[in-house]
Structures are given as structure tokens and as C-alpha cells.
């Protein structure tokens, strides 16, 4: 628990649950409430300390005997796409991204359901209802927004939920049309957000946790230069790194 001159900030530890990323491991989190008049400032501080947001809660892993989840952020001013990333940008050059308020719509949910059933059918999110989806999008005490990515035919093909920070953007969650997997829309959405941050003079895009041992999460180290949070300090991640 920490104190400010206004009110105390309480932190709690969750009960152990099976890790969703690595087999035969248990996950625990430290969580705190973000609601209240100081939510924006608190969220900024916690993001720089490696926390993530879900609804009105900020959380960080505190797993016994495991430090596989490493906070990672892209250094925007120095980012240059590699050959593969340039190919992805060219392949999706006709796609437009639009900032919209954080309000869940039936169109978004239909795409979200298709994505979950095709990519994560065994996960908890696959059973989410429309109301659950709306809560994930709309329950935010801070400045959050959606990016809707649309084809030339105005078809919704990808969505990103983003939190605005004082020093950048935090990519909270993205999903895309599973029939267009060969377009690498997840990577395209990240690079689109990088360019949005660059245009606003913001130095970082926060990608959450990099997990070198997880195929689902190891891709984040491909966006270079990047920094990881280790022992309380943000340090450069070598381009060839495979572990923290």
C-alpha cells in the first residue's frame, strides 16, 4: 500500500491461477483500482512501472519463481520498419484507420467473435457476450479510444483498443479478421500506432508484456528499437534477444 497527500492507494494480490501463456506454471497478479479523480496520473505512473490496464483495474504479474513476463515499449523516434514490416505496410497500404470513441458496437463484436473462435477458441474471451465485450471496451476511467481499420469497401477488418499516456500510447487489445491472417494485420496495427505516436511527438508505444518463451507474445521484440523494464529500469533490448 502507498500513500499520497490525498488518499491511500491500495494494492492487492490475486489468488494463483493457471498461466494463460506458459504450460505448467501458475499466475498471480498485483492489482489496484484506477477509479477516482487521479486515475489519469496514476495510470501514467503505473504504466511506466510496468502495469497494464483492464477495465478500471491496473495489474502487474507477481508470479512465484517466474519473471517471464517483461514489460516492453517501442522507442518511437528511432523506429524503422525492417524488410518484413515494410512488406506488411505495402500489403495493407489501402487500409484506413479511424479513431473512434470507446463504445462497443455489434459490428465490432461480430468481428471479435470470429477472431476469438478462430484464434483462441479455448480461451475465456471466446465465451464473452456482447455486454461483456462492451464492458471491456467502455469500462475505462482514463482517456481511451478505439482504432477501427477498414478496407477500401468500408469493411471493418481490425480493431485496436488504445490508452493515451502522457509519454505515448498503450496498446491494450487488438483483434482482426481471421480470414486475412496472411495480411499480418496485428503487426500492421502496431506500426500504424507507432506512426500516430510519431506524428504527435510521443516517444513510446507500450506493448504490454514480452514473453520470449511464448509464441503468442514473443513477436513484440521484432519492433526495434525497444526497451524492457528490468529491475525497475527501462533498458535497451538487443535486437537478437530471446530472453530478458
From TrEMBL:
One Pfam match: ATE_N
HAMAP family membership: Bpt (MF_00689)
Chemical reaction(s) catalysed: N-terminal L-aspartyl-[protein] + L-leucyl-tRNA(Leu) = N-terminal L-leucyl-L-aspartyl-[protein] + tRNA(Leu) + H(+); N-terminal L-glutamyl-[protein] + L-leucyl-tRNA(Leu) = N-terminal L-leucyl-L-glutamyl-[protein] + tRNA(Leu) + H(+)
Originating organism: Acetobacter sacchari
Keyword Magnesium: no
EC number(s) reported in the record: 2.3.2.29
Keywords noted in UniProt: Acyltransferase, Cytoplasm, Transferase
Role description: Functions in the N-end rule pathway of protein degradation where it conjugates Leu from its aminoacyl-tRNA to the N-termini of proteins containing an N-terminal aspartate or glutamate.
Subcellular location: Cytoplasm
GO molecular function: arginyl-tRNA--protein transferase activity
Domain of life from the UniProt record: Bacteria
EC class: transferase
Listed NCBIfam families: PRK01305.1-1 (NF002341), PRK01305.1-3 (NF002342), PRK01305.1-4 (NF002343), PRK01305.2-3 (NF002346)
Predominant cellular place of this UniProt entry's protein: cytoplasm
InterPro entries in UniProt: Acyl_CoA_acyltransferase, Asp_Glu_LeuTrfase, N-end_Aminoacyl_Trfase, N-end_Aminoacyl_Trfase_C, N-end_Aminoacyl_Trfase_N
Residues of the N-end aminoacyl transferase N-terminal domain: 18-87
Family assignment from sequence similarity: Belongs to the R-transferase family. Bpt subfamily.
Domain N-end rule aminoacyl transferase C-terminal: 107-229
UniProt-recorded name of the protein: Aspartate/glutamate leucyltransferase
Amino acid at each position: 500500500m502507498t500513500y499520497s497527500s490525498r488518499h491511500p492507494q491500495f494494492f492487492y494480490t490475486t489468488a494463483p491461477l493457471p498461466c494463460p501463456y506458459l504450460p505448467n506454471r501458475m499466475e498471480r497478479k498485483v492489482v489496484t483500482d484506477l477509479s477516482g479523480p487521479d486515475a489519469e496520473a496514476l495510470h501514467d505512473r503505473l504504466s511506466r512501472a510496468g502495469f497494464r490496464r483492464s477495465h478500471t483495474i491496473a495489474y502487474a504479474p507477481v508470479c512465484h519463481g517466474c519473471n517471464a513476463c517483461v514489460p516492453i515499449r517501442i522507442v518511437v523516434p528511432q523506429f524503422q520498419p525492417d524488410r518484413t514490416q515494410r512488406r506488411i505496410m505495402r500489403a495493407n497500404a489501402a487500409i484506413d484507420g479511424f479513431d473512434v470513441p470507446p463504445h462497443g458496437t455489434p459490428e465490432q463484436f461480430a468481428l471479435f467473435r470470429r477472431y476469438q473462435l478462430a484464434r483462441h477458441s479455448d480461451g475465456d474471451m471466446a465465451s464473452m457476450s456482447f455486454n461483456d465485450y462492451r464492458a471491456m471496451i467502455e469500462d475505462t476511467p482514463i482517456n481511451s479510444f478505439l482504432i477501427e481499420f477498414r478496407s477500401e469497401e468500408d469493411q471493418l477488418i481490425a480493431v485496436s483498443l488504445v490508452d493515451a499516456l502522457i509519454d505515448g500510447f498503450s496498446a491494450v487489445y487488438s483483434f482482426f479478421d481471421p480470414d486475412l491472417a496472411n495480411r499480418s494485420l496485428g503487426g500492421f496495427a502496431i506500426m500504424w500506432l507507432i506512426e500516430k505516436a510519431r506524428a504527435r511527438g510521443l516517444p513510446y508505444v507500450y506493448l504490454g508484456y514480452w514473453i520470449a518463451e511464448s509464441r503468442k507474445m514473443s513477436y513484440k521484440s521484432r519492433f526495434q528499437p525497444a526497451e524492457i523494464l528490468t529491475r525497475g529500469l527501462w533498458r535497451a533490448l538487443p535486437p537478437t534477444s530471446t530472453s530478458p
